[in-house]
Amino acid sequence: MLIVSARVPAERRLAATLYAYAFLTDLVLLYPVYALLFADTGLSVGQISSLFVLWSAAGILLEVPSGAWADAVSRRLLLCLAPLLAAAGFALWVLVPSYPAFAVGFLLWGAGGALRSGALEALVWTELDRLGAAGRYARLAGRAKTAESLGVVAAMGLAAPVLALGGYPAVGAASVAACLAAAAVATRFPEHRAAKPAGHDRTGAAQPDAAGEGQPDPAEPGWWKSLRGGLAEARADRSVRAAVLLVPAVAAVWGGLDEYTPLLARDTGVPAAGVPLLLLLVWAGTTVGGLLAPAGERLTDRGFAALLAGAALALAAGALLRHPAGFVLVGVAFAAFQLATVLADVRLQARISGPDRATVTSAAGMATDLTIVAVYAGYGVVAGAAGNAVAFAVAVLPYLLLAGRLAIGRPASPGLPNRSLPDNTGLS
Predict the structure, then answer these.
(1) How many domains does the chain fold into?
(2) Phi and psi dihedrals of 357, rounded to 5?
(3) How many other CB atoms sit within 10 Å of the CB of residue 169?
(4) Three-state SS for 390?
(5) Domain housing 36
(6) Residue 197 belongs to some domain of the structure
(7) Looking at CB atoms within 10 Å, which of 187, 253, 275, 391 has the fewest?
(8) Contact assessment for residue 28 and residue 177, using Cβ atoms and an 8 Å cutoff
(9) What is the C-alpha radius of gyration for the chain, rounded to an integer number of angstroms?
């Protein structure tokens, strides 16, 4: 159970709303069974794979534009709309199960994920900063990740009995209900947005636009100004650019490998019924990793490098054991990777100073999605030639390279916020 502790009632409300929203958005009972629904409808493996491509493409294409939209309008509004889109997609799946309906559903689900990504982090950081509690972002973000993990675990536990009682329609109805509840919870998010200046730099000083005028074109859409402003900040400020690139460098590989953990578990020789038990070790690791975020903030550059290197070695060793006991190491590795991912997000939020926070955060999200697609492709090649265990071991090599770069990088410059987090990734 998550304990909501806060210094002031406003922070307590924000934390409770965030945890409930994170839990409900992942309490999707269709998660563990939607592949079965597709197969039972008559789809081939190739058709199912093409649906996954559509899902990823929707997220990638809409990630940054949706972040700019969140900066131009209400972030809370987008957080309300996101689960509604997913609910519409899930309803289509069970009401008219067919390839076109599945495709539209994945497009809606991907669009909903894009609306939520960037907007959620930006809203939480902005509200905490307004309350003078930005230093507690890591704690809230880590616990939100834990809430997401608990939502997935709950969905996995509930899916089987609900499926047995009412079939796919019941599982779909429960998934839609969870999304509607998430949308209702999102209306409780506080949102206080300062008016955005017509032109600004990282210090807030007025800046001319591309035409050399003091004010931007008043006819220019607000979301386009946010898009330009966010991308300009990421491009012009080295620390922001490095923080944007650190997010996919940390999050993408293990995020992609997560999809293949059932195959790795099966290769240990356990019966099919034992695979979910091994996967519980993985989910337990991700849950613990999120809770460790406040302690992780104290890590130096070398400490962060050691965290990544230790996680990579633990994952490789656990995979190469080819034994159920190896999943203890896999769970430890996922805990460390979850912690590192939260800390990379914390560092990014601390570096952003302009008003287009959701746009910059979404740029990091898009880079993560693109990198995950590359991980999928590379994994398929290596696993096809050498098996799942070797593919896991090979996939963690980039972490060792990143850890080495962090360990030998020059010390962070004095005066930067959150100096305990990596400031010189060599990625900029």
Answers:
(1) 2
(2) -65, -45
(3) 13
(4) helix
(5) 9-186
(6) no
(7) 187
(8) no
(9) 21
